[in-house]
Amino acid sequence: MLKQRKIPLRFCIGCQEKKPKKELVRIVRTPSGDVVLDLTGKKPGRGAYICPLQTCLKQAIKGKRLEKNLQMPVSNELIAAIAALLDQKPEGEG
Asked: At 40, which CATH number?
């Protein structure tokens, strides 16, 4: 009998729900201090997970959870760039 693999769960900083890691998008602060969207989930740095939905992004920004998780202030230009990338990402992709 095959051993069942454990599915890694992560916490969405927007809706505050635990979901499988593959369903969420990772926003990472790289060691150089840049904040980027990590679609592979493997870039080095401090990460925060969020559902690929605009509503979750808005909730995370409103509660300043994105800044708190990344441990640095996030500019409005960066938030706009993340929102644009979330719009481009297909819902089924993960």
From this structure: 3.30.1230.10
